[in-house]
Amino acid sequence: MKRILVTGGLGQMGSELVPELRRRYGAENVIASDLRMPPAGADASEGPFEFIDCTRQSQVRAAVQRHRIDTVFHLAALLSAVAEEKPHMAWDVNMGGLYRVLEVARESGCAVFFPSSIGSFGPNTPKESTPQDALQRPTTMYGVTKASGELLCDYYYNRFGVDTRGVRFPGLISHIAPPGGGTTDYAVEIFYAAIRHGHYSSFLGPETRLDMMYMPDALRAVIGIMEADPGRLVHRNSFNVTAMDVTPEELAEEIRRHVPGFTISYKIDPVRQAIADSWPDSIDDSAARAEWDWMPTFDLESLTADMIDKLRSKLGA
Ligand code: NAD
Ligand code: AKB
């Protein structure tokens, strides 16, 4: 990886992946892009930025050619809750965008990182310790695009030799940029609410168990899979990766150790609850551990301590 393009670079993941890639590979070698413009006051000296709608192949191609890109981190997508509200747009952005990125990669010889999700599984998938190779019949538009995206990336590797790689992320918890409309967003909101108000009203029920990961581990996963020895990879585009599985009740309990008196109540959103109920309770990431030495570093305890510490500084609390 020498010349990198990140699509959807202003989102929750891109806001931290772009700086990390710039630290590793040089600021001038990492081109951030998004459908939105950087916020007013953003420091342009941090590195190059391009306006790119990933559904417009000409825009993707022009940036790849102009900057002599060899690796695309394709983050642009609509997340699960938004995708369920706007299924037609979700198909266009998630599938149309990926297809166009893969086409440009095929023409230009780029490698592509594609983030799939625990949302690529469905209600018929084994719910606990979901294996790497499991039944995938998702019932959400987000899941349909993620499962299809995994297949499309496999196809581009097998048919055209495009070096596609990816992981299935769980819910990502971070303190830099807000999440963009997913089912696991509660696990970020709860920290802000705990510090600001000492109370959180959860849109998922108390016993809803889902996999989660702290953003520093997610960045290690992205870079780890892209730098992995290709000779060891069997599952190129869809590695299960996780760090913990947790319910709102358990997360609240852990937060209470840092914010005494913190309370949680429940006002369940039926749409997001149904999405969460269709996803695994926990996934098995042993294939990633075996094939490219994946290993998370944050558990629930250390994640919670770090989030509270960082957010207290950020919010001046
Ligand atoms: P996000 O919603 O925070 O950011 C997505 C970005 O894509 C936004 O900045 C948005 O402006 C941009 N975008 C939307 N449409 C676009 C288009 N047509 N062209 C270019 N940019 C466009 O999402 P995120 O949390 O940063 O997620 C990044 C990727 O990781 C997504 O593919 C998502 O499905 C995947 N993922 C995220 C999580 C998570 O918990 N955050 C978990 C699993 C997988
Ligand atoms: C979402 O909830 O949509 C994402 C995901 C797990 O893919 N956070």
Structural class category = alpha/beta
Proportion of residues in helical segments: 40-55%
CATH superfamily grouping of the largest domain: NAD(P)-binding Rossmann-like Domain
Number of helices: 11
Which segments are poorly predicted (pLDDT under 50) over 5 or more consecutive residues?
none
CATH class of the largest domain: Alpha Beta
| Beta-strand share of residues | 15-25%
Computed over alpha carbons, the radius of gyration is 19 Å
The neighbouring-strand order within the major sheet is 3-2-1-4-5-6-10
Ligands in the model, by name, code or SMILES, are: nicotinamide-adenine-dinucleotide, 2-amino-3-ketobutyric acid
Shape: globular
Total number of domains: 2
Largest sheet: 7 strands, parallel
- The whole-number mean of residue pLDDT values reads 97
